[in-house]
Amino acid sequence: MTFKQALKLQSELYSITDELSNKLNSFDKNELGMISYSNNESKEVKNALRIKFRELQKVNKMLTSEFKKEYKMHRLELRRSRWNN
After folding, report:
1. Cα–Cα dist 78/85, whole Å
2. pLDDT recorded at residue 51
3. Is residue 15 part of a domain?
4. How far apart are CA 33 and CA 63, in angstroms?
5. Is residue 78 part of a domain?
6. Cα-Cα-Cα-Cα dihedral sign, residues 52, 12, 59, 26
7. Is 71 a residue whose pLDDT tops 80?
8. Residue 27 resides in a domain
9. Structure confidence at residue 45 (pLDDT)
10. Can you tell me the distance from the alpha carbon of 39 to that of 54, in angstroms, rounded to the nearest whole number?
11. pLDDT tens, 2-52?
């Protein structure tokens, strides 16, 4: 896997986990503010979120270990672009 492919996969996984997190937070909560996992749909969403988050962690670990220099330059460019805007 190349650096650009890893970044693309990372951004896709970020969007998927955000979407699943929003969907999970849309379920009803009990009096303690916790989501009740009594229905199957909320369990499925929670498991899907757990799987995708684990994949995201693996990609982030790979980016920081295998593409250390490229990732450092990429983050630096992102910071510079934020300061220039």
Report:
1. 11
2. 97
3. no
4. 35
5. yes
6. negative
7. yes
8. no
9. 93
10. 23
11. 999 999 999 999 999 999 999 999 888 888 888 877 788 889 999 999 999
The 3 state secondary structure assigned to the chain is CCHHHHHHHHHHHHHHHHHHHHHHHCCCECCCCCECCCCHHHHHHHHHHHHHHHHHHHHHHHHHHHCHHHHHHHHHHHHHHHHHC
Q: Which domain holds residue 65?
A: 1-6+41-85
Give domain status of residue 58, yes or no: yes
**What φ, ψ does residue 37 adopt, rounded to 5°?**
-100, 40
Count of beta carbons in the 10 Å neighbourhood of residue 46: 16
> How many structural domains does the chain have?
1
pTM value is 0.81
Residue 61 CB coordination number (10 Å): 10
